[in-house]
Amino acid sequence: MARLAADAPTKGGFSFDLCQRNEMLLKKGMHLPTFRKTGTTIVGLVFQDGVILGADTRATEGPIVADKNCEKIHYMAPNIYCCGAGTAADTEAVTDMVSSQLQLHRYATGRESRVVTALTLLKSHLFSYQGHVSAALVLGGVDITGPHLHTVYPHGSTDTLPFATMGSGSLAAMAVFESKFREGLTKEEGIKLVSEAICSGIFNDLGSGSNVDVCVITKGHTEYLRNHQLPNPRTYVSSRGYNFVKGHTEVLSTKITPLKSKVEVAEVDAMEE
Amino acid sequence: MERLAIHHANGMEMVAVKDSAISENGTERTLYPYVTGTSVIGMKYKDGVILAADMGGSYGSTLRYKSVERIKHIGKHSLLGASGEISDFQEILRYLDELILYDNMWDDGNSLGPKEVHNYLTRVMYNRRNKFNPLWNSLVLGGVKNGQKYLGMVGMIGTHFEDNHVATGFGNHLARPILRAEWREDLSFEEAVKLLEKCLLVLLYRDRSAINKFQIAKITDEGVTISQPYALKTYWGFSAFQNPSKGAEGSW
């Protein structure tokens, strides 16, 4: 039998107490609420001076686009940023949590945060939740030991790579990287390649779309290029747009009611503390 | 799947699982493919149509056959490439053999072009799917007749369409983005081969059932050429691959 929440000691990690009851409810036909996923294209690559991260900006809820211009590149530390794919709430929460932990660690140690610290915090959290926290991340940053790029999977495994893609558009973006990546790219070449990979995801994957976000991290300096490219602008049938000048619509009658007479304005003392 | 219980002499029950679904009136249908070929990519270029495929036949997760020719020429004007079940591809080749034979027997100076063969294949695939017994293939049909280039695709459920560049299987996800970005109407043969090899290399890196042994086939008004098998050069020399977890112990 499952223990009451008040009795169970807080051990951390996933609590399997309610799993039996959930399964029984599913069998009876209860539907779980759908998650807002970020069916996504996120990429990262290492260039000669540091790391460049890129992401699209579409958040989907099943077949519907929930947010046309969301931010998928999350702040971890001044020198570390993290792109997130998977369930939007999970990526937000887990990156926020590790970001706070890194800040506290910076106060305790008095040093700049290292990418491996963020990596270890993320992977141990995700592993203890056995893949139920659906966050697939591309973590990149530059610290005292150099530039680093890692991918983190929902079950807690990590890879260290020179270039990486995650999300539903990862194959389209990886096709671009595999054919065009080389070591020692300059900053302009790197940004161009990252934008190309994200555009490949945007135009060839249905779960990705809208705009391209880029983040360039080098030693001592980070540039967050929000909406670096807008390849899907809102277009109108007429190139001049619409302009309705007074006089286009025939006015039948006019009645003006001043509202001041309906509303009473009185001087009252401010609320006391 | 039905299970037959076979009783042994010593009373032990051995259960045999049947791989086909035999219902009361005795019909059978394909449930899953066994020996499969991976992607085929094709595109039109200036002088005709060019197709490429690797030569692997996988038996589940084993690489069983390494010299499977998955691109064949059909009649004078067409090339057929197939991914999916190899035995079904061989059956399709037999159907097409018969079709071309009857066409030749007419001896009327006319010959079946790629459009006609594509239509025939669509009808065959769709009819089989309607009987719940599909030919488990994705077919790429390319050809040139009287200077007109044609490139089309038929799937195992009968979906068919025509396009300037096509890909089956994994090629849809990995090769299509590259082709959409870089294909042009007036590619020369060398440029077309380079573009195809770019796609084949990405597939080799990222598709687990691809092998490094390819055939490229081209068809023009002059005729069909299917190349000898050859391998692509892969690059593994990234410095990051030398000691990947140097900065992060415990990851790989």
Number of helices of chain B: 4
Tally of domains of chain A? 1
Shape of chain A: globular
Q: What's the CATH first level of the largest domain in chain B?
A: Alpha Beta
N-to-C order of helices and strands of chain A? HEEEEEEHHEEEEHHEE
Helix vs. strand class of chain A: alpha+beta
First-to-last CA distance of chain A: 51 Å
CATH fold type of chain A: Glutamine Phosphoribosylpyrophosphate, subunit 1, domain 1
Q: What pair of chains forms the biggest interface?
A: A-B, 28 and 26 residues
Number of strands of chain B: 15
Distance between the termini of chain B: 41 Å
Protein described:
Chain B: Keywords: Cytoplasm, Nucleus, Proteasome. Chain B: One of its GO terms (cellular component) is proteasome core complex, beta-subunit complex. Chain B: Belongs to the peptidase T1B family. Chain B: Non-catalytic component of the proteasome. The complex is a heterodimer of chains A (273) and B (252). Chain A has one domain (37-229): Aminohydrolase, N-terminal nucleophile (Ntn) domain (Glutamine Phosphoribosylpyrophosphate, subunit 1, domain 1). Chain A is built from five helices and twelve strands. Chain A has helices at residues 19-27, 88-109, 115-128, 170-180, 187-204, and strands at 42-47, 50-55, 59-61, 64-67, 73-77, 80-86, 135-143, 146-152, 158-160, 163-166, 212-218, 221-229. In chain A, strands 10-1-2-11-12 form a five-stranded antiparallel beta sheet, with helices on one face. A five-stranded antiparallel beta sheet of chain A has the order 5-6-7-8-9, covered by helices on one side. In chain A, strand 11 and strand 12 (221-229) form a beta hairpin. With 252 residues, chain B is of the alpha+beta class. Chain B folds into two domains: 1-32, no CATH class; 33-234, Glutamine Phosphoribosylpyrophosphate, subunit 1, domain 1 (4-Layer Sandwich), CATH 3.60.20. Chain B is 27% helix and 30% strand. In chain B, a hairpin with a 5-residue loop joins strand 1 (3-7) and strand 2. The longest helix of chain B is centred in the middle third of the chain and has 21 residues, at 86-106. Mean pLDDT of chain B is 88; it is low at 1-18. The chains are: A alpha+beta (273), B alpha+beta (252). Chain A binds chain B through residues 46, 115-116, 119-120, 123, 145-146, 148, 150, 157-162, 171-172, 174-176, 178-179, 183, 196, 200, 203-204, and chain B through 173-178, 180-181, 198-199, 201-202, 205-206, 238-241, 244-245, 247-252.
